[in-house]
C-alpha cells in the first residue's frame, strides 16, 4: 500500500471514534498514518479517547459538517464505524429510516461534493448492515464516485484470536488505486484470503457456517491468556505470582479482591446459569469463552462474557455457531 500514496504519513479522519478502537488498530498495524481529527458525540467516550491518545475528538454533531469542512482536512483515508442500532439483528432493523442512521447518510451525501475526496474508506458495522438499504446507498455512492470496493464478514477467530465476533467490513479505494486481488471486487466475502493476497476460490457458505469449521478455528487460535493483562501479578509465566488462589492466604485475598471484577457475578449465574453453555479452559486450553446457548439469538454477534472457570473440562467442545 505504501507505493499507492505519494504522501506519508497518511492523513486520517476517524468518524464515530468511540474510545479509539480504529485508531488503535492503525497503531497495531504499524500504518504510517496520523489521525488529524476524530469525531464522536459521546463525552464519556471522548474522555477515554483523550486519555488513550492525548487528543480530544470533535464533539459536535457530525451532521453539521459540510464538504468544505472535510476538504479542509485534506485526508487520505476515512475510518467510519457508524451506529449499529439501525441494522442489528435484534433491533427493529429500520435501516435508513432510523434517526441514528442520518449522520452516516449525511457523510455519504457529501462525498460527491468533495474537491479533495479521500483515497481510502474503511467502514465497520454489525452483521445485518450488508442487507440494509443504507448499505445499498453506500455502495451506490462509492461506485458513482470512482471507488472500487471489497466487502467482508469476518470474525477474530479467522485471524487466530480467541474471540467469536463476526462483523461487516467494507474496504474502498478510489481509482486508479486497486486491490491486490481485483477479481474479488464488488463481492461480499467471508474469508480473509484476499486480504492476504490469496487468489484461491472462496469457501462455500455452507462450510463457513458449519460447526466443524469454527471448532477447527477455535482449536488453532492463540490461548486467551496471551491477551490478558496481569498488571499486579509480576511475571505471568510464574503461575504462583498471578494465580487467583495462591498458597499465601494474604496474597490470595488481595488478588481475589483486586480481580473480583473479572468474574461473572454469582447473581447472574444463578439467574441465567441454566441458559448458558460454558467453554471451560485454563492457560493450557486455546480459548476462554462463556457464551449463551439458549440465548444465542439474543447474544449472537454481540460481546461474549469471559470468565475463569475451574473444575472438570468437557472432552468435546460445543460449536461456536
UniProtKB/TrEMBL annotation:
Entry keyword annotation includes Phosphoprotein: no
Active-site residues annotated for this sequence: 84
Domain of life: Eukaryota
Alphabetical list of Gene3D superfamilies matching this protein: Vaccinia Virus protein VP39 (3.40.50.150)
UniProtKB keywords: Methyltransferase, S-adenosyl-L-methionine, Transferase
InterPro entries: C5-MTase, C5_MeTfrase, SAM-dependent_MTases_sf
Stored SUPFAM superfamilies: S-adenosyl-L-methionine-dependent methyltransferases
Family of this protein: Belongs to the class I-like SAM-binding methyltransferase superfamily. C5-methyltransferase family.
Name of the protein: tRNA (Cytosine(38)-C(5))-methyltransferase 2 isoform X2
Naturally occurring in which organism (per UniProt): Solanum pennellii (Tomato)
Gene that encodes the chain: LOC107029004
